[in-house]
Amino acid sequence: MGSLAPWYEEAFRSDYRRVYAHRDLASARSEVSFLVERGLSGRVLDLCCGFGRHTLAMVERGLDAWGIDLSMDLLREAGALENAERLEGRLLRGDAAALPFRDASFDCVANLFSSFGYFGELGDARMLSEIARVTKVGGRVFLDLMNPAFVRANLRAESSREGRDFLVRETRSLMEGGRRVVKDVELRFDDGGIRRWREDVRMYEEAELRGLLQGRGLRVEAVLGDFDGSTRSEASPRMILCVRR
Fold it and tell me: How far apart are CA 94 and CA 96, in angstroms?
């Protein structure tokens, strides 16, 4: 019998960082520098922070940054980061659709690395409402999402990769007319251990997001295609929305 836990609780366990080691502090520092140049400042919420790599990069840049994530396994992994002591007391466990913060608590909110589209359309809408609620009027929000057109055009149905002590196989498919991307993952360790999970993310078109954000007092100022500052096109690997509250 399968687990009753939501997929995003099963996916983001302690072995995530080991398997996806390329998602590291060096890349987080580069991405945070990019966002700082575009107005990331003040008291910042790193929403769905994982093991805190972007939160730490923000603190290193002098921001009053705080991170929140649902995965206690990943939050515990923050202790392995270089300069991890700078995150002491700044990471907490919580639900992105029911944030434990007062209204207008933050100058900026950053939701990075495709950490949106997990909760179903109603849950995703609640998450945007919470983002709007905790952001000060005049503040900024940065949403770093998958570009649906790029995903649909470049989806790899199958791939595999070997690590030092594991083999990971990934199978991908599109559902609901290409609105959802589903990835089935099998992780086999050299010691015989096996773990399987499914990732299931609702992808949103730019027009959908503009409507959802506008209805919550959030105005899109720019839509970029990657952390190089390029304007989004169908060929862009990402969709980064720069939003004003």
Answer: 7
